[in-house]
């Protein structure tokens, strides 16, 4: 569905050039949840923005459903980290979810059905008439997820969506992502710097190095589909996998890509 091949990105030019992404290759298959995990500043947001067509990379190939990504592709929705900036504060919850659907030319009955189905999926029935300032951070992020779901994207990109909420809310929202993935058979690319989160949610984890950034490895996550915040995280396989990801971020194997010795320490 999404193919990224030898993507590179350099910010600036000349003496001020900064190689943010050195060599990124991976693919996302339909119905998968792939998480991308890496240290702060490794270029996760840069990568997601190029995939969303919000900026052009300086090198490499990016395709979505076989087409080169040159602008925001149809069939792609994104949920950002900063829920405060992503909802329209003057619109109610229902109108926020309805807003991006206007351009799809659906009948009123279809629009109503999509909005209400999405609000049910994120557990916000009864809050339709509230405004964002009347909701907690976690609830605002649920509205952002409902808005993305109502659009019925082929792929949902999520950029550290739960980084600004408390730990308990974060766990609830992680389980919400797993439930909507199942319910809508959604393909999701989830960016996080949280190792536990990357393993808990994913079918596969793409591990990024420190900058200049490359894909250290892609790990399959062979955990049961029915994940549980307590039982899964106590599972010895989960503990092994989170340890493996942590080790790979700290000590990437340098056989594939030459990186400065100082960066491997
Ligand atoms: N517009 C820009 N101009 C120049 N450098 C930039 C720009 N945007 C990002 N960078 C640099 O590129 C690198 C990657 O930034 P990016 O925000 O993509 O990383 P990140 O992994 O998402 O970071 P974090 O985990 O802290 O959110 C950083 O060194 C950052 O300073």
Automatic annotation (TrEMBL):
Keywords assigned: ATP-binding, Nucleotide-binding, Transport
GO MF entry, a single one: ATP binding
Keyword Transport: yes
Alphabetized PROSITE patterns for the sequence: ABC_TRANSPORTER_1, ABC_TRANSPORTER_2
Domain called ABC transporter: residue spans: 2-235
Transmembrane region(s): none
Pfam family, any one: ABC_tran
CDD domains noted in UniProt: ABC_NrtD_SsuB_transporters
UniProt key word ATP-binding: yes
Protein name: NitT/TauT family transport system ATP-binding protein
Provenance organism: Mycetocola miduiensis
